[in-house]
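Worked example 2:
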Amino acid sequence: MPNHVNPNTGKPVISVTTLIGLFGNKDGLLKWAARMGQDFDYLRWEGADLGSYVHKRIEAHLTNTPEPGLVNKAGRKVICQDQVAACWRAYTQWYTSVYQGIARIETEASIMHPSGRYAGTADLLLTLKDGRLVLGDFKTSNDYGPSSKFTKEQTRQYQLQLGAYSELFRAAKNVSPDEGVIINLNKKTGTHKLTTFTQAQLRAGYAAFEALLNAHEAIQALQ
């Protein structure tokens, strides 16, 4: 993810995912690390490598550009090739199911809110042949669905994330997505799952995100 800097002030601007992460519940990640019997930072590092690589490979596919290498900037090879393969199978299934209905794809749109308060990078904005605009974000998790213990918390965070992105498009580009979708690529089973949000749910998500933003700015003002 790129670093966002306000060109008028030269100061960094908080990103959507960073802000949500400050208030989000990381208990699930800690329990996962304990269950795996490994270091939390290492597992988070591994997961970030996988997610980053899969996102870059998807962007390369959608923009018809060369695929990224399997070595990241720190010189580490993406750790689990089986998980990479599973995520790619899941992505291929999703793409095959929707591509005929797509008129235009915008990928990795990095946008700063005109107020300069926050910024973010949306994975994709799809213009469908029926005229609808769909805001999408890929997730590379092991389990996200009705059987997942953290479904409710994840869904809330995803609604805030897509709601914040939707507001960025509206405020900066005068574009209002009709719906949002989380495309979960299961790194274990190689299947995908969609979680959709209506335009009303996106607006509600942004309202909650703005409350977090207000709280963050109030806390920063105390320092």
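The first helix runs from residue 16 to 23. Residues 16-222 form a domain with the Lambda Exonuclease; Chain A fold (CATH 3.90.320).
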